[in-house]
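ok trying this again, last paste got cut off
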Amino acid sequence: MRKIRLSFIVFMLLTGMFYSSCKKSSTDTTVVTPPGVGEFVGAIVVTSKSDTMLTYFLKNNYNRITGSLELYTSDDVDFNKYLVNLKSVNGSVKLYKIRNTDLSFLSNVTKITGDLQISACPGLTSLAGLSKLDTLSNNLVVENNPAIKNLNGIGAVLTLMNLNVTGNASLQSLTGLSGLTSITGGILVGENPVLTSLTGLNVEKITANVTVYNNAQLSSLTGLNKLKNIDGNLTIYGLPALTEISALNALNDTITTISISGCNHLTNLEGLNNIPKIKKDLRLVDCGELANLQGLTKVDTIGGTFELSNLAAFSSFTGATSLKGIRKDLRIAECNALTSLNGLSKLDSIKGDFILDDNRSLVNMKGVDVLKVVRGKVQVLNNENLVSLDGLEPLTIITGDLDIYYNPKLASYCAIKATTLTGFFYNGFNQFNPTWVQIKAGTCSK
C-alpha cells in the first residue's frame, strides 16, 4: 500500500511539473493586433472565375490588403467591380494572364509595399490605370506581355528596388518612367525585339547592376543620360544594332565590372570617358567593329581581368592612355587586325596572366613600353604572323611559366633575354625554338 501511495505521489509531482512547464509564462507580453477597419489580412489568390475570394473582399467592404493580391486567371472576371475600394496592398501584386486591356481595377491604389509583377497579359498595351500609385517599395516586373508598347500610366512612383522589363514583343520605349529618379537595386532590360532605346528612364544612381541584353533593334542607350553612378556591373550583350554608348557620359564614378559582347556595330567606347577605375573586370567580346579603346581615357586601373576576344576590327589600344595596372589577367585573343600592342604605353604591371592567343596579324609586342612585371604566366600561342617578341625589353620579371607555341614565323626571342623567369620555359612549333639557356646566352634569334 505504501508503494502504491509513493508511486502516485511521484506521478502527481511529475505531472505537475509537466503541466507547469506547459503553462504560459506570466511575463509573456505577446500582443496580437486585430485587423483594422477595412483591412484584409492574408493573401487573395484568384485562379478562376469560380473563386469566391473577391466576392468576400467586396462584401466586407475591405479597402486594403495586408498580404498579397495574386490574379492568375485568363477567365473573364470583372476585377473593377470587386476591387473598386482597394487603396493599398501591404505586400505584392502579381498579375498573370489576366485578360484586361488596362489596369484600371487598381486605379485607387496608392501604395504597394512588395513587388508589382505583370506577366503574360495578352491584352495589356500600357500600365494605364495606376495613376494614383506613388509608392512601390520593391520590384517592378513587366515580362512577356505581347501587346504592351510602353509603360505609360505607372503614376508618381519616384523610387523602387529593381526594374525588370523582359520579353515584351511590342515594347517600343520605357516612357512612363520619367518620374522614377532612384533605383536602389538594378535594371534588367532584355528580349524586347522592337525596343530602339531606353527613352523614358530618368535615374541618376543605380546601386546594383545594369544589364541590357538581346534587344535586336536597340541602337543607343538614350534614357541613361542622367545616370552618374552604377555601384554594380554594367553588362551589355546581344545588341547588334547598338552603334554608340555616348548616353553613359554622365557616369563619373567607379564601376565593378564592364562587360560588352555581341555588339557588332559598336565602334568605340565613347561614353565611358569619365570613369576613373574599374574595380574588377573589363571584358570586350564579339564586337566586330570595335576598333580601339577610345573612351577609356581616365581609367588607370583594372582591378580584375582585362579580356579582348574576337574583335575583328580591333587595331590598337588607343584610348587606354592612363592604364597603369591590371590586377589579374590580360587576355588578347582573335583580334585579327592587331599588329602590335600600341596604346599600352603606361602599363607597368600585370598581376595575373598575360595571354596572346590566335591574333592573326600580330607581328611583334611593341607598345608595352614600360611593362616590367607579370606575376602570373605568359602565353604566346597560335599567332601566325608573329616574327619577334620585340617590345618586351622592359619586362624584367615573370613569376609564372613562359609558354610559346605554334607561332610559325617567330624567329626572335632577344627581347626577353634579360627577363628573370621564376617558372618554367616551354616552347615548340615555332620557326625557331631555342632553350632558355640559349636565349640567356644570346642565341636568341635565327
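PB: full thing came through this time. Residues 293-446 form a domain with the 24 nucleotide stem-loop, u2 snrnp hairpin iv. U2 a'; Chain A fold (CATH 3.80.20).
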